[in-house]
């Protein structure tokens, strides 16, 4: 990290301003070499300076240059931000000029990666930066901001501190058993501490399921036979004519998607091709895709026709979705009832008439109830927010279970210590106390260039 990096930090296109950002030991000098105005090497830190970026004697653009000297910067290095007009040509020319004068083009997320490697933020906060950019709802933004302010990191650090104290006590008892003034660490005491830690960590893991809902929304699949009203229900939920609705079976041959918000939580709704046996090659592909979507869904809305008896296809759909979060919608309830579900033990049933809005609000209410959306928006946003964090927490929990098992089997105390140390290290990986270059490269590769 001895070189100086540069990137365009704003979306490239026509706009009011663009920002070209540099970070590194030569950032100020590089910009100063192509700046017509004050001597930037002599200005005070955290100041904005008016002038022009030039290429030899040619003026490229009129700019405002922000000078931020180490260590009080985003990366803890010298950082310069060139605010220029938002044209594509001028922005690219400024970038090219910085490259010619010695800067290197930044990799995706490299500014944030440097902030992490230089100790300004930990891995949880690093991931929160991208979560703020990707936030699709106010709740998701609040969750990311909570991570950025260190709420989750502090929780993990506190938990590791408890483990560290327990490990220290075990070490002292192993290494200095002859001392009478040290606290005797018994297996009963370890078991008591382990029970408390397991409960705390399990609670964090369980509650972190909410973070996925807050961040990514609920992936919802509407499924059923042709002509039961799936597309009409999608349109009524979205309050727009998103899907084509006809009386012709097989009209929907591919997935149709839309988004709504329920209690501030995003609902990603997918209308699928009607499930039936068909010789039409295109429709057959659509049916296969529909069935595969069931496995990926967080919520399945199964639509049945109130005006028709239960069919073999209906039975197969109900069987395939029985272990999923499921709402059964009995549509066309304004027509004569021919559907008999008395022999079926079904929960979460909603009756609708998709030609009007009858039952649509009840369907929304059922989704809110099923996912507890009315209580998910809480003030405490101390969640693990992605698969990496949750996976490491689960592994740490498993190590605590292994330690508890070793206690029950009366294994030597130093064997129990191994599992406790493993749990301590895994929790450290969450916040970046320990990491591999491969993990960092993968994590920051998903960032914007210039962030």
Topology of this protein?
Elements: E1 5-8, E2 17-23, H1 27-32, E3 35-37, E4 47-55, E5 58-68, E6 79-85, H2 88-100, E7 104-105, H3 110-117, H4 123-134, H5 138-148, H6 151-175, H7 187-207, H8 209-216, E8 218-224, H9 230-238, E9 256-262, E10 265-271, H10 281-296, E11 299-305, H11 312-320, E12 326-331, E13 349-351, H12 360-370, H13 373-376, H14 387-408, H15 413-431, H16 437-444
Helix pairs in contact: 4-5, 5-8, 6-7, 6-15, 7-14, 14-15
Concise summary:
The chain has 16 helices and 13 strands. By secondary structure, the protein is α/β, with parallel strands linked by helices.
Structure description:
By secondary structure, the protein is α/β, with parallel strands linked by helices. The radius of gyration is 29 Å and the shape is flat. It is built from 16 helices and 13 strands. The longest helix is centred in the middle third of the chain and has 25 residues, at 151-175. The chain has three domains: 5-117, Gyrase A, domain 2 (2-Layer Sandwich); 138-208 and 383-432, Four Helix Bundle (Hemerythrin (Met), subunit A) (Up-down Bundle), CATH 1.20.120.430; 216-374, P-loop containing nucleotide triphosphate hydrolases (Rossmann fold). The chain has helices at residues 27-32, 88-100, 110-117, 123-134, 138-148, 151-175, 187-207, 209-216, 230-238, 281-296, 312-320, 360-370, 373-376, 387-408, 413-431, 437-444, and strands at 5-8, 17-23, 35-37, 47-55, 58-68, 79-85, 104-105, 218-224, 256-262, 265-271, 299-305, 326-331, 349-351.
């Amino acid at each position: 990290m001895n070189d100086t990096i540069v990137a365009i930090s704003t979306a490239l296109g026509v706009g009011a301003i663009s920002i070209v950002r540099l970070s590194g030991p030569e950032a100020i000098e590089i910009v100063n070499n192509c700046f017509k105005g004050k001597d930037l090497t002599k200005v005070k830190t955290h100041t904005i300076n008016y002038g022009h970026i030039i290429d030899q004697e040619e003026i490229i653009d009129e700019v405002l240059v922000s000078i931020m000297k180490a260590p009080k910067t985003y990366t803890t290095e010298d950082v310069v931000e060139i605010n220029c007009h938002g044209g594509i040509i001028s922005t690219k020319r400024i970038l090219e000029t910085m490259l010619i004068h010695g800067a290197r083009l930044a990799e995706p997320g490299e500014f944030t990666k440097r902030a992490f490697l230089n100790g300004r933020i930990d891995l949880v906060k690093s991931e929160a930066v991208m979560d703020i950019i990707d936030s699709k709802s106010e709740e998701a933004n609040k969750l990311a901001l909570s991570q950025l302010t260190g709420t989750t990191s502090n929780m993990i650090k506190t938990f590791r501190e408890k483990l560290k104290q327990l490990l220290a006590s075990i070490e002292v008892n192993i290494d200095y058993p002859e001392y009478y003034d040290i606290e005797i660490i018994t297996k009963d005491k370890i078991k008591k501490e382990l029970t408390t830690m397991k409960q705390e960590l399990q609670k964090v893991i369980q509650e972190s399921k909410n973070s996925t809902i807050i961040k990514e929304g609920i992936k919802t699949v509407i499924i059923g036979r042709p002509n039961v009203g799936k597309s009409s229900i999608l349109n009524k939920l979205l309050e727009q004519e998103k899907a084509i609705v006809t009386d012709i079976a097989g009209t929907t041959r591919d997935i149709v998607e839309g988004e709504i918000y329920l209690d501030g939580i995003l609902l990603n709704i997918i209308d699928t091709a009607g499930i039936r046996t068909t010789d039409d090659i295109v429709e057959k592909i659509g049916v296969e895709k529909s069935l595969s979507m069931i496995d990926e869904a967080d919520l399945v809305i199964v639509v049945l026709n109130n005006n028709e008896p239960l069919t073999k296809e209906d039975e197969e759909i109900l069987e395939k979705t029985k272990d999923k979060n499921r709402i059964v919608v009995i549509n066309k309830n304004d027509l004569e009832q021919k559907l008999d579900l008395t022999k079926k033990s079904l929960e979460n049933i909603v009756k609708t008439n998709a030609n009007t809005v009858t039952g649509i609000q009840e369907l929304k209410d059922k989704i809110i109830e099923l996912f507890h959306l009315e209580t998910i928006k809480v003030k405490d946003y101390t969640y693990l927010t992605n698969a990496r964090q949750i996976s490491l927490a689960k592994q740490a929990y498993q190590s605590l279970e292994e330690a508890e098992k070793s206690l029950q089997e009366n294994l030597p105390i130093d064997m129990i210590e191994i599992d406790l140390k493993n749990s301590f290290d895994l929790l450290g990986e969450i916040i970046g106390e320990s990491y591999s270059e491969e993990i960092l490269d993968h994590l920051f590769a998903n960032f914007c260039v210039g962030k």
